[in-house]
Amino acid sequence: MSNLNSMTTVFEKLTDLKNIFKFGERIVPVIQSLIEFMRDIVPLLENINLSIADSTRKIPQAANQIQNVTSATELATTEILDLVDEITNILTGIESQAVDFFKDINERVSSYEKLKEMFKDNEEVLSLVEKISPSKAAELQKTNILENIAKIKADSYQITLSLQVQDITAQQLASVNHLIESVHSKLSSLIQDIDHADLNADIKGIVMETPEGVVFDPNASYSNKEERQKEIDVLVNQSIKTTQEEVDNLFK
Amino acid sequence: MSLKFLVVDDSLTMRRIVVNSLKNLGYSEFVEAADGQEALTKLDSDRTINFVITDWNMPVLSGLELTKGIRGNADFANVPILMVTTRGVKEDIIEALQAKVSNYIIKPFTPQVLKEKIDQILSAQSN
């Protein structure tokens, strides 16, 4: 009985072994495909790694270029502000000279009018006075010139105000640089996780030269919408009102 | 009362624009600072400064910290502070008001708004 049991076990084991071989026959092509897939994917992964490393290497350059843009626009803005200030100063001088000039013209007009009155019976003198007296259009010219000077001054001031865009774009660029710095940091640590000594040494050597202590508002935007200021005014007024009520309550 | 302004902004461009705007409004006395710390030093050394116009985002010491510093110092706690900033989120404005800024302007500002806010602050002070 015992021998029969042992034989049954042996046959069962042999059947299992046969099944394993059958399974093996089916699995071997799958493993072979897997090996071929791995053989194909490894160079691809290598390429991806190299590409990430290359991008990581280029990011600091991009960040530096953005910083250069900020510095260049700040310099250009300062130059524009200098020129606008100079134009405004020259215009103020011209305005003052024009006022003096037209005052002088007015005095001359009044003198010529007196001359005309004095020589009203002398046609020859009257004709001469008429020829040399200042133009009657002088008053109109005066108004035009002074109005134009005022307009140019107002436009120059408007240029100054529009240059606020430099501060706002500088903050937007600082925000982009901050983002680039974060991506660079993540990619660098990813590269360091990959066991590729040459790559690591290369990447570790690259330092991002972004200026320290740059503070920015990531939501800074250049818009002339009055609604934004009005919304703020409502909040400020509410706050002032509340504070006043609180003060009043203290004295009740 | 003649006003002496302390204009605080880390952007040289913005400081010049604010000062130009104040000149256009007829004011003539200005002191400038590039951050909150420098502003506190200037306030401490020049007691004739009686109006502060400050940005929020600045290195070393922000406009908000500057406001708290001014309000916490008995020597110049009552100096009006006008915040001129790009920060327009409601929470920021509330935080600034809690720190006791006198008024708040969003950048880019217009000279009309600047004049209106200065006048409002001076009027509130005289009351």
Describe the overall structure.
The complex is a heterodimer of chains A (about 250) and B (about 130). Chain A contains six helices and no strands. Chain A has helices at about 1-120, 125-130, 140-160, 165-195, 195-205, 225-250. With about 130 residues, chain B is α/β, with parallel strands linked by helices. Chain B is about 45% helix and about 20% strand. A five-stranded parallel β-sheet of chain B has the order 2-1-3-4-5, sandwiched between helices. In chain B, helix 2 (about 35-45) runs parallel beside helix 3. The longest helix of chain B has 16 residues, at about 110-125. The model of chain B has no long low-confidence stretch (mean pLDDT about 95).
Task: Give the topology.
The complex is a heterodimer of chains A (252) and B (127).
Chain A (H helix, E strand, L loop, with lengths): L1 H117 L4 H10 L5 H25 L1 H30 L3 H8 L21 H25 L2
Chain B lengths: L3 E5 L3 H13 L4 E5 L2 H10 L5 E4 L8 H9 L9 E5 L4 H9 L4 E4 L4 H16 L1
Parallel strand pairs in B: 1-2, 1-3, 3-4, 4-5
Helix pairs in contact in B: 2-3
Q: Can you give keywords for this protein?
A:
heterodimer; A: 252 residues; mainly alpha; 6 helices; 0% strand; rod-shaped; B: 127 residues; alpha/beta; 5-stranded parallel sheet; globular
Summarize the structure.
The complex is a heterodimer of chains A (252) and B (127). Chain A is mainly α and 252 residues long.
Strand content of chain B: 15-25%
Low-pLDDT stretches of chain A: none
Helix content of chain B: 40-55%
Number of helices of chain B: 5
From the N-terminal CA to the C-terminal CA of chain A, the straight-line distance is 110 Å
Strand content of chain A: under 5%
Topology, number of strands of chain A: 0
Largest interface: A-B, 36 and 37 residues
Rg from Cα of chain A? 43 Å
Mean pLDDT of chain A: 84
Distance between the termini of chain B: 14 Å
**How many E-type strands of chain B?**
5
Form type of chain B: globular
Rg of chain B, please?
Answer: 13 Å
Secondary-structure content class of chain A = mainly alpha
